[in-house]
Amino acid sequence: MNSEFKKIAVIGSGTMGSGIALVLARAGIDVNIVDVEQKFLDLGVQSIENFLNSRIRKGKMNDQEVNILKKKIHPFLKLEDATRDIQLVIEAITEDEKSKKQLFEELEIHCDDQVIFATNTSAIKISELATATKRPDKFVGMHFFNPPALMNLVEVIRGDKTSDITIESIISLCKFLEKTPVLSKEAPGFIVNRLLWVFLNESYKLLENGIAERDHIDKAIKLGLNHPMGPFELSDYIGLDVVLEIGEYIKNQLGEQYEPASLLRKMVNDGKLGKKSGSGFYNY
Ligand code: CAA
Predict the structure, then answer these.
(1) Hey, whose CA ends up nearest to atom 6 of ligand 1?
(2) Is 51 a pocket residue for ligand 1 (Cβ < 6 Å)?
(3) Centroid of ligand 1 to alpha carbon of 78 (angstroms)
(4) Which residue range is the domain that position 249 belongs to?
């Protein structure tokens, strides 16, 4: 099986960007990974290298395989350099509508007309982001899940003007990457985060109303629903700030019944963001 995408630019080298870059490189696609500062870029590339080195230590990959894969990943600081000869951009920067639109305006200047623009947004309207470009027919949502290397799902989201050809190309790419695509229209949170938000937010309310303790809720969900993580473990893993951003967005779009639990707001205000900050619902 061949991919029509030989070289892809991934914008943003955080957890999602670097994870997506790894998935693409693993499938033999050249990846131009971009960030705004050298230190962020270094962190992203380092996280990929750490993972590959652990593959060698565990005897799951050999030196030669790792070297081939590393050569597929090309770090860049400038968009005009990173967008040369690419067929697709996957945007994975911070979940902020204004920043994303600014980025797409800039990409529009640098990219060839044929390049497809995909956004890894977890909730924001695709058509709204597409207004920053002159190619709404080639603009699509491509939402990976954390950690991208292990999670099989990609939500493919159609904006108002996304063409059938664009959707077909992205679905083929997902299959080429050995991911399972599902299609969604652009309702806030799409499929997974719309449901995930309600599930996580209710778990915070159970805790803050004293209905059950943290460990009992996590255990109940793991054993009762066969989830790999309970809601508090998962919230810490995703990052409570990210969860709150998703919740706020869904509430602003869909109404007060989606209002975030006060416990979540307080924890984010107190800097308890989960694993990345050293404490959240658990300490790390
Ligand atoms: N990248 C690449 N490989 C990884 C990895 C990563 N980040 N983390 C672990 N691995 C590898 C390990 O090296 C290990 O490899 P080997 O078995 O070959 O040695 C293998 O994966 C298993 O590692 P673990 O034993 O640590 O993994 P696990 O079995 O405990 O599973 C998990 C870890 C996949 C994260 C699992 O706990 C899980 O599925 N949790 C739920 C995750 C989830 O729900 N994610 C979605 C979040 S919501 C979202 O992403 C949407 C959004 O917009 C916010």
Answers:
(1) 147
(2) yes
(3) 31
(4) 193-276
